[in-house]
Amino acid sequence: MAITNNLAHWEAEPFGTELIDLTLGDLLDQRAAEFPDKEALVYHYPEIGLDLRMNYGQYRDTVNQLAKGLMALGIAKGDHVAVWATNVPEWVFLQWAVSKIGGVLVTINTNYRASEIEYALRQGDIKALFMIEDLRSYSYLEAVYSIAPELKSLNDPVTQELSAEKLPRLKRVILLGKETRPGTMLYPQVTALADQVSDEELKARQSSVGVHDVVQMQYTSGTTGFPKAVMLTHYSLVNQSHIACSRAALSADERYVTSMPYFHIAGSWGAIINALYLGCTLIPLIAFDPLKQLELFEKEKGTYTAAVPTMLVAMLNHPRFAEFDLSNLKKIGTGATPVPVILMEQLKERIGADCSIVFGMTETTGSVTQSFYTDSFELKSATVGLTIPHTEIKIVNPATGETCECGQSGELWTRGYANMVGYYNMPDKTAETLDADGWLHSGDLAVMRPDGYINIVGRVKDMIIRGGENIYPAEIEAFLMRHPKIAEAQIVGIPDAFMGEEVCALIRLKPGETVTEDELRDHCKANIARHKAPKYIRFVETFPLTASGKVQKFVLRDQVIQELGLENVAAMKTA
After folding, report:
1. Which fold has domain 49-228?
2. Which of 92, 123, 260, 104 is CA-nearest to residue 187?
3. Can you spell out the DSSP letters for 479-541?
4. How far apart are alpha carbons 306 and 514 in whole angstroms?
5. To 10 degrees, the CA torsion angle through 265, 268, 270, 274?
6. Which helix (H) or strand (E) is 94 found in, with range?
7. Using an 8 Å Cβ cutoff, are 128 and 73 in contact?
8. What's the confidence (pLDDT) of residue 547?
9. What is the dihedral sign for C-alpha 198, 199, 204, 207?
């Protein structure tokens, strides 16, 4: 027990686990040496002509070839390489190859649209962009052309670098596809450059990489509306896998089926790195599809999955669920939103699987607390588990800065090896989140029980969590208020039985202006990420205000909940 004097302060303790000094590239080489012939990566998509089965030796060799190709392309240590794609195999190889040569992989949300990708490419100082051509009828390539039209006139992208006015740092655009497009390279053209770099040169570059070097940046939205790039290190990523896999009681025998998106910490770390750390077999989905995931559980004898509750519900409720043999699936990692007792009961009854609950954020390299499989369903549903090893947590009164007593609500602060380095090129925003003493201020309101288990009860910042995705109202409000007909916009989260929360926009139009809900929805879908587009739109004449003139969002939220008849759903979420 690490609590004293009934104060909500859990002091860091090892739980019998020591931290390790290992880079991602060295971890890959270790696993390939240990399990050269063991199945490492499986993509079973015969319906699209993709049936990849790769052992650990082949995995390492494929990554090394790409790493040498990147070096030949001019990617230097510390350069930023972005990937804007679904969970395709090339994404996996890029993560390891960039890490081997001391680069920084920048993950891009697949829902991004033109303005958002322009911001990320510029703010993130991206030198090379790997991307798919399109997704769900939205052309990623046309978005890039609209930002950097100079790309179309590049005659030989293999030997010539891009020079774009709006994106002066961007030099290469590489398509993860089969068709050539003006100004872009194809992925095989990069790997073909590997012959220009020797194995010794790659080894020398890899040996120059340090465990505390930044290896990945992930964009997460902030209350200002401007996305922030969270900087993570080899040390934090490797040790989070070391810690989380141990608490989750996972082993090298797992067959890990998952559709968590790679651009998210739960995919890039929770899937790709965790699976390789274990030395198990990773069986990814290119994108979430409940039927496809059920098929893969049976076909590949999946033993473990990580999924947000909305994914689990979608699979359990699929009309063909009963057709599949899921008897090998024994363990499930979940979190991001509260996990109801009824869901865990159904997973146990209908599949025979137990859950481990994880709470964390990108800024903490994925997890801060985690439950044990042996915890009761009631404990898992009421809390987000116990602090992970080598990590310190305290619950702080936001008004006074004093540590709360157990049972009192306050902001969760955490300190330890897994905290981010900071937000890239945003020292002021970094200082707001990560203080001088190393405490990361989560923005989450939490309660610590006397046994150390944590219950998340709300958010200091006005964040919406929709299906595991963090959505910040200020960003959507700023976007909507740029519309020529809108005078003011307020965004609130509305409880939803399936997604956890949905976005509701309350709009006050400029005098004399008219606009329909459908027009605003089309405007949102065309210009902001799909998961941020409001499900509900309401037009109002005025907003309820406090005495100091601030909008009372809780009043707006309650009004919409009552109008939609969602009082029971709201009560379930706060119970």
Report:
1. Rossmann fold (3.40.50)
2. 92
3. HHTTSTTEEEEEEEEEEETTTEEEEEEEEEEPTT----HHHHHHHHHHHS-GGGS-SEEEE-S
4. 45
5. -150
6. helix 89-100
7. yes
8. 42
9. positive
| pLDDT above 90 coverage of the chain, percent | 80
Q: Which CATH superfamily is domain 1-16+392-460 in?
A: Luciferase; Domain 3 (2.30.38.10)
Contact 426, 227 (CB under 8 A): no
DSSP 34-77: H-TTSEEEEEEEGGGTEEEEEEHHHHHHHHHHHHHHHHHHT--T
Per-residue CA distances from 265 to 232, 268, 477, 556, 557 (Å) = 10, 5, 26, 32, 30
What values do phi and psi take at 42, rounded to 5? -130, 125
Q: How many residues does the chain have?
A: 575
Grade residue 4 by pLDDT with cuts at 50, 70 and 90: confident
Torsion, Cα of 473, 139, 187, 92 (10° steps):
30
442: nearest Cα among 398, 408, 473, 475: 398
Q: Do domains 1-16+392-460 and 49-228 have the same CATH topology?
A: no
**Angle subtended at Cα 469 by Cα 334 and Cα 315, rounded to the nearest 5 degrees:** 50
> Which H or E element spans position 316?
helix 309-316
CA dihedral 111, 117, 119, 123 (to 10 degrees): 110
* Superfamily the domain 464-574 falls into: ANL, C-terminal domain (3.30.300.30)
**Nearest-angstrom CA–CA distance, 451 and 501:** 30
Closest to 232 (Cα-Cα) out of 241, 222, 245: 241
CA distances from 292 to 126, 195, 268, 303 (A): 34, 38, 21, 16
Quote helix, strand, coil % in the chain, to nearest 5: 35, 25, 40
How far apart, in whole angstroms, are the C-alpha atoms of residue 507 and residue 493? Answer: 15
Residue 223 pLDDT greater than 60, yes or no:
no
Confidence of residue 335 (pLDDT cuts 50, 70, 90): confident
Range with the poorest average pLDDT among 145-154, 426-435, 454-463: 454-463
Q: Which amino acid is it at 187?
A: Y
- Going from the C-alpha of 215 to that of each of 65, 94, 95, 233, 501, the distances in angstroms are 19, 12, 9, 5, 32
- Per DSSP, 272 falls in state I
Q: pLDDT at position 459, please?
A: 66
CB of 454 closer than 8 Å to CB of 383: yes
The whole-model pTM stands at 0.84
Mean pLDDT, residues 39-59: 97
Q: Can you spell out the DSSP letters for 352-363?
A: --EEEEEE--GG
- Residue 93 predicted with pLDDT over 70: yes
The two structure tokens encoding residue 297? 């559980």
Token pair 């051509």 is at which residue? Answer: 133
Q: Are strands 454-459 and 440-448 parallel, antiparallel or unpaired?
A: antiparallel
d(CA 31, CA 75): 25
- What is the rounded distance in angstroms from the CA atom of residue 228 to the CA atom of residue 242? 27
Q: What are the structural domain ranges in the chain?
A: 1-16+392-460, 49-228, 464-574
**Nearest Cα to 65, choosing from 263, 202, 229, 254?**
202
